[in-house]
Each structure stands twice: as structure tokens, then as C-alpha cells.
Amino acid sequence: MRILLRFWPDIRPRAVRYVASILFALASTGISLLIPVLTGRAIDGPLAERSLPGLLAITGLVVLVGTAEALFQLIRRLLTAGMTADWEVQWRHRLYRHLQRLDVARHDEWDSGQMLSRATNDLSQLRRFFAFGFPFLVITPVLVVIGGVVLALIHPVFALILVLMALPTMAGVAWFNTRYQVASRAAQDTMGEVSTSVEESVQGIRVLLSFGRSPWAARRFRLIVERLRDHELRKVRLDAWLWGVVMLLPQLAQAAIAGVGAWGVVAGWASLGDVVAAVTLMMYLRMPIEMFGFLLSDALMSLTAATRYWELMDIAPRITAPEAGSAGSTSQGSPVLTGTAGGGTVSDAGGTVSDAGGTVSDAGGTVSASRGSRGESLAAAPRTAPAAEHSPDAGVLEFSEVVFAHEDADRPVLDGITLRVAAGETLALVGTTGSGKTSLASLVPRLFDVTSGRVAVDGADVRALPLPHLRSRIGVAFEDPILFSSTVRENVLMGAQAVAGEDGADGEEPPALTDAQVWEALEIAQAADFVRALPAGLDTQVGEQGLALSGGQRQRIALARAVAGRPQYLVLDDPLSAVDVDTEDRVQRRLREVLSRTTSLIVAHRPSTAALADRVAVLDSGRVQAVGGHEELLEASAAYRDLMGVHA
Question: Helices 34-42 and 272-313, interaxial angle, to 10°?
């Protein structure tokens, strides 16, 4: 059970209360062992002597013992319930915070259902175990020992029978332990697969219905749940064997005590009261002994749950703040770790992190920010830190000999990219699928880190900047936008940049934008008209992942979120792919107002989007093939003309 000791820092502040709850559990169960002793005394004493006062006195003691047992049980429950519920909240919160700190590549390595089952089923299992299973797992052997001592006081022969019962029980428990752990782990892992399958089918219901593939999904799900059934049945078979042993042996011991006791009464070395007390005591011991089978299986499932929880918690983020030792140096080629990039799989991160050191705000003075001590609000402060305001590199985005590769890939996705985007300039990235456009854009907010080379903002390597400080200055919108199951207003406000702790701890609320500023962002994204038409306007719930809206509507709200905070840097990965040409043209006209004050990187697939940029970089196989203006490249680059669908 060493894995459970890792929860000790959480338990320690309430250790006294927890130990008290265990002692009350022991007292409530242990005091009941007095009843068989009192019964035996009643038979040999008041009943044999026909003494009514003596019988009433023993009866009163039995009532007193029963009342004390109920009172101790009540106190134990009151001590335990709230305490273990608080631990479950603490563990869930800590796991959620940890998941927020993990980089995108780490999330890509795990099925979401496996993460979900660890955060829900496993932690609920641990809460139940610490509330009930662990206390009674501790006190059950103690009760058996106390019962054995009482039996020995009645007569040593009765205690010997109890010991003879205990030996095969221990052997059965040892056999059960090794096999049940394997079965429990397999079942809990398969439950994670079930969660993943359900989540995928719900999120992909439009695809399944459109292609008529619901029967395929049902068959696939059935195979998983049948595998789960097989694992659960194996657990049931093992449980059945254990329960058979722990239920049969106490009954045999009880029968043996009755038989040997009857012989003792006839032989004269035991009284009738002693035999009744021993048999009754064995009946009381049967319950904790039989419950031990349940407690053991519960303990093994809890150990598996704890192992799965710490497996996730032990994953170290590969992209961390420089204080954690991930970046330290701003020189080229500094050792960093890489992740797995995939177009469309990266969620929209715009506005989820923020500045923890230095002042932040928009260039036009429309948002407030915090600096220094958390809570000191500065309205209309410059977006950059004061030290960078007069730097020649202020607002400059630079890629220097950037190489990025998947961990297990044979060749890099990006190979020696060198580009410089001047302050206030817009650079479009164009290229065929797989040319590295999305990967390059993802390096700016450090969703991934370079394998070698350097990405710099304001002349500083992004790996040398605190993550909140870096990301608070960057607005991001991706082709496949993710909205949260909240209102339109709250989704847009995510772009206002909250102040978060370096370790991913809870931060302050984002600077409050007025409704006028929210509407302004929606106007830029040409989303204001359809938002006004929604049932509750800004307060309309967009549904899970925004699926209550169309693809184009989700993209425009995500774009409004990206520009709401007037970021110093803007990274747009084909953010208008799902809108019609007329809407795209209106968005681009308004977007030029933002881009004129922002250093922007745009992944473009349409000529109109590329024409929006000051310069265009053509990527092919992870390398820059050409850089120039839109019209210039149309004349000079055949590859660019092919990409834009323009033929000479």
C-alpha cells in the first residue's frame, strides 16, 4: 500500500480527526463484543439463579452497550463524510490543474476517456475507500484479535479453533490478492476505453448519422463493453472464491465451537453460559470476517485507482516556465523537448493564460491588466513590458534556424526556418498540406517547443519568458475552433487575458471588458449580427464545444475572442475556412484595423487571405521556398500560383 502513502500530505492536516474516526469505528464495533459476554453471564448467573434484579441489570448493560455502539457509529460518520469529500475535491482540483499545465503533445498521447475515468471513477473509488474501506480494513484484524482474546478468556480451546480458522483464510487472501490486482487494473483501464468511445460517438454524432455508420459505432462499442464484462466477470469469480472461503470457515468454526463446547459442558470443563457466549461471539465475528472479502477487493481496486491517478500526476510538463528549468537559455540550439503537432488537433488557446510579470494591455487602451502584486489594475497600459517599449526589437517576431520534429519521426516537420516579422507587419504562411504551417504557428505561444533553433518575441527567446507573460500578449484562433459550454460573452471574454500563476494555479478573473468592447470584437469578426439574433444575445449558451452554432459562427466567435484583448501578437491558423466569401471579405476589411496595430502570423489557404498580408512565406516540406508580397509572388513563383489556383 505504499502508493497510498503519497496522499499523506493531504491527509496530514486532518490526521488527528481521521485517526479519531478510525478509533470511533473500532469502538462502535468492538464494544458490541461485550454483548455475547453479558449473554453468557446472564445464563450462568441470573437465569440459573432465577434472579430478576440481576437479569434486569444485565439487560440494562446490553441496552447501554447498544446505545454506545450507535453513538460511536454516528460520530464516526460525521467525522468522516465531510473530510473525505473535501479530499476528493482537492484531488480532482489538483488533477485538473495538472492537466491544464500539460502541453498539447502530452494530451495527444492520452485518450480523453482515460483521463476522464481517472478524474471521476478512480477518485470516487478512493474517496469511498478512505471513508469506509480503509478504516474497517484496519480494525477488522484488530477485532478478530480482540475476539480471540475474549474467547481465550472464556476458554483457550475456543481461541484455538479461531486460530485454526484464520490460517486457511490468510492463505486464500494471499492467493486472491495477486490475481485480483491484475483483473482490477484491466477492468479500470477498459472503463477508460468505454468513456473514450462514448465521448467520441457523442462528439462525432453528425459524422455517424451522415454516413449511416451508427451500427458500426454500436458494434465497436459493444466489443469494448463485452471486454469490460469479461474483466468484471473475472473479478466476480475471484470474489466468489474469496467470499466462499471467508464465509465457510467462520461457520465451520462456529459449528466446531458449539460441538466442542457441548462436549465441554458434558465433560464439566465448560459451563452452558461459556458455550453460549463463545458461539454468540463467533456470530459477531462472522460479520467483520465475511466483510473482509469485500474490504480486500475494495482495497485492491483503490490501489489500482491510486496507481492510475499518480500515473497521470507524475507526467511532467515538457513546456514549462524558465524557472522550472525548461528554457533557461535564449541561445540557439538550447536543449528543449518537442511534441506532436497535427493540424486541427490543437485547441484554441487564445486567452487561456496571461501575464504574471510586467504590465499588459492593448495598444489602443481598451483593456485593463494586472502587474506586480496581483490585483493592481492598470487601465490602458501599453501591451508590452516597459523595458521592451523602446527596444528596437519591440513587437518583432523572429524564427531563427527553427527545426521541429516529432519525437518518433524520421524527419523534421520544420527544417531550418528563418523568418522575421516586423512590428505591426502581417506575414501569411502558405503551403501544401503537411508543409509545416500549423506547426510553425503553434511554436509562437509555445504549444510546442522547437527541437533546435530559436523563436523570439521582442528579441527574447520565447523559452526564456514566463509562460503567462508570453501567452498574455498573443491572440490565437485556429481553423477548428473550440468554444466552451458557456455564453457567447464568456467565450469572447477569454481573450481578455486572465492573470494565472506560474504553476498553473488559479489566477484572477480576466480584466472586465464592457459589453461595448465585446460587441466591438464581434463586429470585427462579423459575428455581431447573428449574435444579436440569438435568443439571449450575448447570454446565449453555445452548447458543448459550441456545437449549437454552425462551423462558420464558431470560427467568428473564436476570432472575436482572439482580437478581444487587442494582443500585441496575433496567430491565426486559417480562421475563416468555414465562412462564405462575402463574410470573409467583410471580416478582412475590419480585421485590417486590428492587423495594422498587431504583429500577425496568418496561415492562409485562400488568395484573399494571403492578399491581406504585407508579405507571404511559401513553405514546402518544412522549408521556406519564397518570401515576398502577394502580387510579387504571383509573378515570380510558380509554386505560389499553383497554391493560389492562379495560372499564368
Answer: 170
Q: What is the pLDDT of residue 390?
A: 52
d(CA 430, CA 440): 11
pLDDT at 505: 45
Residue 265 burial (CB count, 10 A): 14
pTM score: 0.71
- 508: DSSP letter: B
Give the whole-angstrom CA distance, residue 112 versus residue 545: 15
What's the DSSP call for residue 45?
Answer: I
Residue 92's pLDDT is 92
CATH number of the domain bearing residue 121: 1.20.1560.10
What is the count of structural domains for the chain? 2
Domain encompassing residue 426: 349-644
Q: Are strands 615-620 and 426-431 parallel, antiparallel or unpaired?
A: parallel
User: Both 453 and 555 in a single domain?
Assistant: yes
Residues 84 and 131 sit within 8 Å (Cβ to Cβ): yes
Of 597, 600, 606, 615, nearest in space to 578 by CA: 606
Question: What pLDDT, on a 0 to 100 scale, did the predictor assign at position 509?
Answer: 54
DSSP string, 76-132: HHHHHHHHHHHHHHHHHHHHHHHHHHS-HHHHHTS-HHHHHHIIIIIHHHHHHIIII
3-state SS, 324-349, equals: HCCCCCCCCCCCCCCCCCCCCCCCCC
Phi, then psi, of 329 in degrees rounded to 5: -115, 145
CA distance 360 to 211: 48
Specify the pLDDT at position 165.
81
The stretches in the chain having pLDDT less than 50 are 324-389, 498-507
Hey, how many other C-beta atoms are within 10 angstroms of the C-beta on 16?
9
- Look up the CATH number of the domain holding residue 353: 3.40.50.300
Given this model, what pLDDT does residue 333 score? 35
Edge to edge, the sheet with strand 414-421 lists 414-421, 397-404, 452-457, 460-461
Distance between CA atoms of residues 288 and 540, nearest Å: 55
- The rounded radius of gyration (Å) of the Cα atoms in the chain is 34
Same domain, 246 and 294: yes
For 233, other C-beta atoms within 10 Å of its C-beta total 12
Residues 147 and 31 placed together within one structural domain of the fold: yes
Q: Which CA distances in Å does 477 have to 108, 367, 369, 543? A: 19, 19, 21, 19
